[in-house]
Design a protein that fits this description.
Layout (H helix, E strand, L loop, with lengths): L1 H11 L2 H7 L3 E2 L7 H8 L4 E4 L7 H7 L6 E8 L2 E2 L5 H9 L5 H15 L3 E8 L5 E7 L5 E6 L1
Helix pairs in contact: 2-6
């Protein structure tokens, strides 16, 4: 019986982590050249030059002190993955010897399915040489979700 319970714990642990880590676009892969980004995400929703003074407030506050040439805003539908996805579920499974998976797997499944319907604004800032120097993901209300300096 002990062998069976240990095997069951081993089988259960990690399912929610796998669910959290699947699907979507990896945030770290988005900060590429302008051509590659347009190929990956399509035509940008908004384009701002270095002399534009009509930037949305949440973008202006982040780029106010930067020397940039161009800011692109793309709309992303679906999940944007980050490196820490699934880590809390993994730790919880380890600490509870897999028992937490009974609750966490259904929650992760619902969360993963609902993330397919999310919309995000991906903002990428480019310098005069065409290099991505800042990339950020915002929700539809302008709240910052992820950031990356390059």
């Amino acid at each position: 019986m002990r062998i069976l319970s240990c095997f069951l714990i081993f089988l259960l642990s990690g399912c929610s982590t796998l669910i959290e880590r699947t699907g979507g676009i990896e945030h770290s892969n988005l900060c590429t050249s302008i051509d590659e980004l347009n190929k990956l995400l399509g035509k940008p929703k908004l384009v701002y030059g270095h002399n534009d003074h009509n930037l949305p407030k949440h973008i202006f506050l982040r780029t106010n002190n930067l020397s940039y040439e161009k800011i692109l805003v793309h709309e992303i539908k679906g999940k944007v993955k980050k490196a820490s996805d699934g880590v809390p579920q993994m730790y919880l499974a380890i600490l509870t010897l897999g028992i937490s998976e009974v609750i966490v797997v259904p929650v992760s499944t619902v969360k993963r399915i609902s993330s397919n319907f999310e919309k995000h604004d991906y903002v990428s800032v480019y310098d005069e040489h065409g290099r991505c120097i800042l990339s950020e993901v915002y929700d539809t209300n302008g709240n910052q979700i992820m950031t990356g300096w390059y």
